[in-house]
Structure formats: C-alpha cells, structure tokens
Amino acid sequence: MPTTVNAFGAHEARHPLAPVTIERRDVGPHDVRLDILYCGICHSDMNFVDGSFGPLPVSPLVPGHEIVGRVTETGSAVTRYQVGDLVGIGCMVNSCRTCDICRAGQEQYCLNGHTLVFASPDPAEPGAHTQGGYSEAIVAPEDFVVRVPETLDPAAAAPLLCAGITVYAPLKRFGAGPSTKVAVVGLGGLGHLGVKMAKAMGADVTVLSQSQRKRDAATQLGADHYAVTGDGTAFTELANTFDLILNTVSAPISLPDYLGLLRLHGTLVSVGVTTQPMPVDVMTLCQNGRSYVGSLFGGIAETQEMLDFAAEHQVTADIELIGAQDINTAYERINASDVRYRFVIDGSTFAGEPA
Ligand code: ZN
Ligand code: ZN
Predict the structure, then answer these.
(1) 14-36 tens-digit pLDDT
(2) How far, in Å, is the centroid of ligand 1 from the Cα of 65?
(3) What pTM does this model have?
(4) Where do the structural domains in the chain lie, given as residue ranges?
(5) How many angstroms separate the first and last alpha carbons of the chain?
(6) 264 alpha carbon to ligand 1 midpoint, in Å?
(7) Strand, coil or helix: what is 270?
(8) Which residues surround ligand 2, an ion (CB under 5 A)?
C-alpha cells in the first residue's frame, strides 16, 4: 500500500514552499524505503521552484536531492541493504541501465536520460513524478542508493550527495593530487567542498575570489593560498600556474582570463551552471594545450567512492541545520549569499503542524 508522508513543497513556481502531503509507493522487490534524517538545500532546488527550469512538472513539487536517511524496509530482492543501514540518495534515482554510458558507471550522462530524484516522470509509477527529500520518507531502487559511513556526521554528510560528488568527480578525473596545483573559483556550497576535497587529495590549493572578503574563510577551510581577481593583477601574477581550475560560480566568468592561469595541459572545469554564454578565446586555449570542460555531478559507484573517501579523510560540509519551517527563509538567505556554506533540513521537522 502506498503511504502518505509529510513534506514541504511548492504548489506554484515563484511561490513560497508550504507543508504538503505526498504518496510514497509500496516497496517493490528491488526498492528500499528510508526515513529521511537530513536533506541539504542545493541551489538547483531553488531553480526548480523559482521557475528557472520552466513551469513545475507537478503540483505540489517537493524538492531535495541531498538525502541521508535510515533504511526502514527492504524489497524481497534487495541484497545490499538492511533495515537500520545509514544510506544516501543524491540527484538520480534511476537511469536506463543498459546504454554504454550507464554500463560505464556514468549514469548521470545516460543516453536515454536519467530519472532525477524529483521532478522527473517516474518509471516505477507510470503517470507519476518523482518527489524529493524535503519529506519524511522516500522509496528508491537499491541500485541508486549509496552507503553513508557511520563515522561521518550524517547532517554534514548530506551535502556530499550533490555538492560533494559534483566537485569530487572532476577533481579525480583531472588528476588532483600531490604535486598538482588546484585553484577553486567561488567559495559557496560547491567551492568550500572543492577546497576540502582537493586538500584531502593532497593538492596545493588556491582560492580565487573577487575581493579580500573571504580570505580568512579560505584559510579556515584549509586553502594554501588566496588570490584576489577583482583588480585583474592575479591574472598576470599567476599566469601559467595551475594544473586544474574548478569553477563553481553559477554566473559568467571571463574565460580567457582564467584559461591564461593554466600551465601546460591544464584544465578549467565548470561545475557551476549558467545559461548565459561565456566566449572562449581559442588562442589562449591553444597555448599550453589547455582544455575547457564541464562536469555534471557523478555516477553511483563514483558517489560511493566519494563517500568512502570523505570518511577516510573526514571531509563533510560546513552546515547550518534548520527546521522545515525555515526553508523559505533559507532560500532568501542563499539568494543573499548569507550562508556558510550549506543549509541542511532536519528531517524530523517535516512532521510538524502546518504553519
Ligand atoms: Zn544539487
Ligand atoms: Zn543509460
């Protein structure tokens, strides 16, 4: 029998979120059900709710894709998880599983389109849409559930499910490690984890920021260096310096300036998404044989690897824990850049009386 759970969702785009109830499907043979302990608030939750990604695909729409919870029920064919296990769910809850890309463990690039944890048509329930982690409980296929090491603080681990894997995957892919110089552009939810992950991998890490304002914060996060880009001098002084630049800013940056900072065969990777164009200067790209690439979160096996790495190096997000009733205020504060560095919702507060 489907069960009704308390959640927070949007009835219309550009309206505040409100207490709602949604149905969770019965646990199928390959499904697990979890009680949600914590759910992070990612900027792309807000993009769905503010209409940036178009009209809401379903009403109400329950966002949330940085989920940590405990398994409360397992399907008859489930092999990997037991009741009581600490687990996580990130951006995806399904993909075609048969294309070359899925078989290579890169389900986020599935040729037939992955199923987002919310706002996607749900292959498990024809006619229904997936609903996300701003809720008491969720049901998902075990293949898209990852194990959260018990040695991690579960609240501070929640943002690893999106922000963490989003920075870990390209750092790993482009070889961040001892004897490499990595620069992180932007020091928000993604950037602060970029600094921590790159340091844990052994890289020499520089934060590139518009002004002096975040220098102390960068040092506290473990950055080795800090350079101010606002007056342009960093682009001259640090020319041909970095092996890898991780751009976490969700707005256009001057690509020729940042590409000029890359040394031989260096790579600038964008993980912050903007719909505005960013012109590339091909001459600068050709010099030093530089690359400019993008990256979209990560595959399931890679997400598990990231969580195990995070546990080994004790990497978690710096968070501010809130109750569900404070989600709308949190959205306003994120828009005002007033958060260090991630809001996480306490899952026990979804059951509260409607405000
Ligand atoms: Zn996200
Ligand atoms: Zn596929």
Answers:
(1) 999 999 999 999 999 999 999 99
(2) 6
(3) 0.96
(4) 3-161+318-350, 163-294
(5) 29
(6) 32
(7) strand
(8) 95-96, 99, 102, 110, 112
